[in-house]
Amino acid sequence: MARSSGRKTERESRAVVPQDDGPIEDAVILPPREPRPRRPRKTIPLEESPPPRRSPRGLLARGMLGLLVLVLGTVALFGAVDPPTTPYMLSEGRRLGGVDQAWVPLEDIAPVMARAAVAAEDAEFCNHWGLDLDAIRQAAEEGSARGASTISQQVVKNVFLWQGRSWTRKAVEAALTPVMEAFWSKRRILEVYLNVAEFGEGVFGVEAAAHHWFGVRASELTEVQAARLAAILPDPKHRDPADPTDSLRARARGILDGAATIAADGRASCFQRPSAP
């Protein structure tokens, strides 16, 4: 029979578990572990796509379309609203310190003045659509541009374009003239022409011209006075209708004959009433 020893073996002493019957004074209470903050995820920006490139042709087309809309709108507007001025009047106003011009409707202009202007500048005014192709062809054969420019073309040049004889301006003028003819009546075209045409240095429009040269209103012009005013239109700065030369008198007589002719054969019917004297 084995003897029991009074000592506990080391293994047995290790196996002794203290009882939890009483408080443990030396126990250390640790605070609860805080969760680690999560690192924000790095967002990789998406590669931005470059804006679509606009081709030069597209930009040019848009610019031309905008210009066309502007031009058409202006032409349509001046078909009902009197142009306040013209580029040439502005230029002459800066050079001279002002110009003389007063707008009057066609009804307040002597009918013979309208006929005289058409006879002098564009006898086929009522028969063409803005461009007189026969006159252009004849002028080309003669090597001169005189007589090829219709009243409608002169209105386009005076109201919308610049002065000069460049091919660029002539091309724009030729393109814009039929457009104006489509929007305006012949009476309106002639009315604008007689109100913006130059009749002397700083003198624009037939109302200012009648007062400047003869001391009367446009409605009071006589046949001779109207013919002389029409006679100076090709070179108004160097011709004097109040003191005409022999050549100017002869031209005025020819204009009077032409005015009577277009009144008799119906070539004044598009702008003048049949009852007009």
From TrEMBL:
Molecular function as annotated in GO: pentosyltransferase activity; peptidoglycan glycosyltransferase activity
Pfam families from the UniProt entry: Transgly (PF00912)
Keywords: Cell inner membrane, Cell membrane, Cell shape, Cell wall biogenesis/degradation, Glycosyltransferase, Membrane, Peptidoglycan synthesis, Transferase, Transmembrane, Transmembrane helix
Catalyzed reactions: [GlcNAc-(1->4)-Mur2Ac(oyl-L-Ala-gamma-D-Glu-L-Lys-D-Ala-D-Ala)](n)-di-trans,octa-cis-undecaprenyl diphosphate + beta-D-GlcNAc-(1->4)-Mur2Ac(oyl-L-Ala-gamma-D-Glu-L-Lys-D-Ala-D-Ala)-di-trans,octa-cis-undecaprenyl diphosphate = [GlcNAc-(1->4)-Mur2Ac(oyl-L-Ala-gamma-D-Glu-L-Lys-D-Ala-D-Ala)](n+1)-di-trans,octa-cis-undecaprenyl diphosphate + di-trans,octa-cis-undecaprenyl diphosphate + H(+)
Domain Glycosyl transferase family stretches: 99-257
Residue ranges of the region described as Disordered: 1-57
Known EC number: 2.4.99.28
Family to which this protein belongs: Belongs to the glycosyltransferase 51 family.
Alphabetical list of PANTHER family matching this protein: BIOSYNTHETIC PEPTIDOGLYCAN TRANSGLYCOSYLASE, MONOFUNCTIONAL BIOSYNTHETIC PEPTIDOGLYCAN TRANSGLYCOSYLASE
Protein name: Biosynthetic peptidoglycan transglycosylase
